[in-house]
Amino acid sequence: KILILDFGSQYTQLIARRVREAQVYSELHPWDMTEAEIRAFNPSGIVLSGGPNSVYEDETPKAPDCVFELGIPVLGICYGMQTMAAQLGGAVETGHVREFGYAEIQSCGDSPLLRGIEDKEGGVLDVWMSHGDKVSGLPEGFHVICSNESTPIAGMADENRHFYALQFHPEVTHTHQGKAMLSRFVHDICGCAREWTMPHYIDEAVAHIREQVGDEEVILGLSGGVDSSVAAALLQRAIGAQLTCIFVDNGLLRLNEAEQVMEMFAGNLGVKVDHVDASEKFLSELAGVSDPEAKRKIIGREFVHVFQDEAERMPNAKWLAQGTIYPDVIESAGSKTKKAHTIKSHHNVGGLPDTLHLKLLEPLRDLFKDEVRELGVALGLPREMVYRHPFPGPGLGVRILGEVKKEYADLLRRADAIFIDELRASGWYDKTSQAFVVFLPVKSVGVMGDGRTYEWVVALRAVETQDFMTAHWAELPHALLAKVSNRIINEVRGINRVVYDVSGKPPATIEWE
Ligand code: XMP
């Protein structure tokens, strides 16, 4: 397995994903991981990531010395290369012109990392650069393995010690041969076998869960979302008889969602599911409340209440399972410097475990989202479920602007189902990252047949995004928008106007509240 030490680059998670795509297990840890922790992890190789710092700044992050003393291969990328050079006696030139974007470099052809890899004949590589500083003097024992005019030392290696470094980013797809380079490093140089495959993972995870849980009982809050669904399927495989899922209908679910979840889990997979219809309670608590954050807090609080009541009726349960995935783990372990502004409080984080006195079971905490999906399919969940767009914890509660009413939720559910239906039928569902309808508590005048109407407005929202931090509105074909609009207005009595949201994030957010 490969250890990736994170120096704060925005691409670090990509390194871990690329290594795993090469079927080698990798973990990401902060750069200041202790020597004892590194030794305990026992990696076959270490990657030092990029980062925003300059090696000559005060208190600049450095790789722990043991990294260069363990006798295992090390690959430094961007800042990782610079700190490797500085720490091993080379020189780094700072404060120079920034280089950002595509670059062509010439591989020298004699290094195991790059030998035979090229985009154009003669060892020319298209790479992605993003740096200010660069290595200007090689540490002892190193030689140059690739270069171009502006970056004469674009890569360096000391093959005897198995130290390699690249100034560009092999982990981004813009570096066309980046995958091949990382595969060289992990397979050929570190000697890792291609063992990180789904069937292999399932066997290991099942054994691990059984060992952890013993004969104790487990409860899991099943939301119908990808993560909790896959967690449920995995736990069912591992300790099915000891698992009870709690599915709370808060009155803010999509059309037929409760039925679908029950049919899939209780029906097809034979999972024990406690289906709690708390919709009246949620809606009565929400009555008269229009502030978005207040609504989120109420929904979060009610969920905890319902869950707690149900859990208390299962005195034998000793474990609370959660669908935490690896990016959540990385984020909450996160560097102290990255402190984000609270734009919205995402209620489904934390809160439950303390009050319930249950041990926490997180069977997906090692997996990236795409791996969770792959696992779900391997466990027999339908692709449509596993590749569903994300749905926020507070559900339609944040898609009905202002006060939530049952009447609004019923209209919205039907309009939303039509939109999703048409997206699927036209092949646009998979081309968008998230799409939904928003209910606007505004009435406008229309005409239907010979009569005047005075009815509600809904907005369609569809976005394309990689990470949900920034997003573009999707350029859906006008004919598709026309069809959706027609169907909603004709089929959902009470809505007479449909608009399309053409705002990006930022400055708008994906959800309207
Ligand atoms: P925004 O609206 O902040 O949304 O651009 C980014 C992503 O987060 C989802 N989202 C939520 N998910 N609880 C959740 O579990 C929430 O309160 C919440 N608010 C937004 C949103 O659907 C999008 O995918």
UniProtKB/TrEMBL annotation:
It is an enzyme of class 6 (ligase). GO terms for molecular function: ATP binding; GMP synthase activity. GO terms for cellular component: cytosol. CDD domains: GATase1_GMP_Synthase, GMP_synthase_C. The keyword Disulfide bond does not apply. The active site is at C78, H169, E171. Pathway: Purine metabolism; GMP biosynthesis; GMP from XMP (L-Gln route): step 1/1. ATP binds at S223, G224, G225, V226, D227, S228, S229. It holds the Pfam family GMP_synt_C. The keyword 4Fe-4S does not apply. Keywords: ATP-binding, Glutamine amidotransferase, GMP biosynthesis, Ligase, Nucleotide-binding, Purine biosynthesis. It comes from the Bacteria. It catalyses: XMP + L-glutamine + ATP + H2O = GMP + L-glutamate + AMP + diphosphate + 2 H(+). Its EC number is 6.3.5.2. HAMAP family: GMP_synthase. Homodimer. This is GMP synthase [glutamine-hydrolyzing]. The lineage of its organism: Bacteria, Pseudomonadati, Pseudomonadota, Candidatius Mariprofundia, Mariprofundales. The gene is guaA.
